[in-house]
Amino acid sequence: MSKADFFQGVRNGTPVFLSAAPFGALFGAVAVANGQTIAEAVLMSMTIFAGASQLVGIELFGQHIAPWVIVLSIFAVNFRHILYSAAMAPFVRHFTAVEKFFAFFVLTDPQFAETLRRGESGRKVSFAWYIGFALVIYVPWQVMTALGGIFGQLIGDPKVIGIDVLLPIYFMALVLGFRKRANFLPVVAVSGAVSVIAYHTVGSPWHVSIGAIAGMALAAMLPIKRDPAPREAAQEG
Amino acid sequence: MDAFFHGDMVALILAGAVATFLTRIGGYWLVMRMKTIPPRLEAALNAVPAAVLTTLVAPAFFTGGPDVQVAMAAALIASLRLSVLPMLAIGWCAVMLMRYAFGT
User: Fold this and answer.
1) Nearest to B27 among A85, A167, A192 (CB)
2) Number of domains chain A contains
3) Do A120 and A188 belong to one domain?
4) pLDDT tens readout for residues B8-37
5) Which residues of B touch A159 (CB under 8 A)?
6) Is the CB of residue B82 less than 8 Å away from at least one CB of chain A?
7) Is residue A172 in some structural domain?
8) For position A235, what pLDDT does the model report?
């Protein structure tokens, strides 16, 4: 392991840590508000380590939805990682099997974006750099989850201090992060309309899968356009 | 707090963790075995994040009270110029204003 590479990774990851930290705290607070203990919230942050899917999981958990649907929803929100790990393949092939295990375990949107940028600019993506970048996001993510959980426990009802509205706004921001993609507006319009109709007819949580499938089916049917690599939406941790 | 961990919650979290890890390693695994992805499948996969996340936003807006709707609209307008954290700050200010100044 090269020390210089490791610390360069730490420096590169620091801005990501600063922008992701509030979401770690947000997750901790929302998790406790929806009935998780602080220890469970931290366990979830340590083992899943994907902000959006953690928030989706906890939101569905608060609605007392069947566990397999929650797991499926977490899978659906994290599905984009399949595309990331595919696109990253040429730059991490030289990692050992153990290094690959850890590298993919901590794969996030910004990790993907920076790895691709570094690899495509011709610089070597060393494991030391990769894991330095990852750790400066991973470790504070756990600390912020715990702090958010403690804070959330003191407050009780999230409506009193307006935390409840942060979640849909955060998801809206994530959606908007993909606005440069092919078929963005038609997909959002169809998924949105179908999910609202399904919410009122079929009911929660099916509106999530039904709306998502409608948007994906539309994208598959529309004329194929060239699309830049999926490297935007580097917001959450 | 009555307990640190509940068995069924831990099982749920670990199942979610396995599902997440499969997505993280899945693309690498696939691309090492497959030469190309069919373009229509790729287009559908490419639509996944916007399609999934929209289904979390739209019902929240249409089932929310005026306080939530004003906050989300304010955040959407803010998004034209600002990044995520200011969007959250503006949405939060709007909802607090609606709740405590206008009593909605």
Assistant:
1) A85
2) 2
3) no
4) 899 999 999 999 999 999 989 988 887 677
5) 99
6) no
7) no
8) 39
The answer to whether position A28 is within a domain reads: yes
What distance in Å separates the CA atoms of residue B77 and residue B63, rounded to the nearest whole number?
20
Q: Does residue A234 fall inside a structural domain?
A: no
What is the band of A156 on the pLDDT scale with cuts at 50, 70, 90? Answer: low
CA dist., res. B20 & res. A194, Å (int):
26
**B12 close to A (CB below 8 A):** yes
A187 and A102 in a single domain? The answer is no
Q: What is the pLDDT of residues A176-190, one digit of tens each?
A: 888 888 899 999 999
pLDDT in tens, A106-137: 999 889 888 988 988 889 999 999 999 999 99
Residue A235 domain-assigned (yes or no): no
pLDDT at B2 over 70: no
Domains in chain B: boundaries:
1-35, 40-104
Contact B72 A165 (CB under 8 A): yes
Q: Do A181 and B39 touch (CB under 8 A)?
A: no
- Alpha-helix residue ranges (DSSP H) falling in chain B: 7-31, 39-46, 48-63, 66-79, 84-100
> Are A146 and A198 contained in the same domain?
no
Shared domain check, A214 and A125 = no
Q: Are A42 and A137 within one domain? A: yes
Q: Which ipTM did the prediction report?
A: 0.80
Check residue B59 and give its pLDDT. Answer: 92
- The residue among A121, A155, A189 that closes a domain is A155
Q: State which residues form the domain around A183.
A: 179-225
Q: For residue range A201-232, what is the model confidence (pLDDT) as tens digits?
A: 988 767 887 898 899 899 999 987 655 544 44
Identity of the residue in A48, A72, A181 whose CB atom sits nearest the CB atom of B50: A181
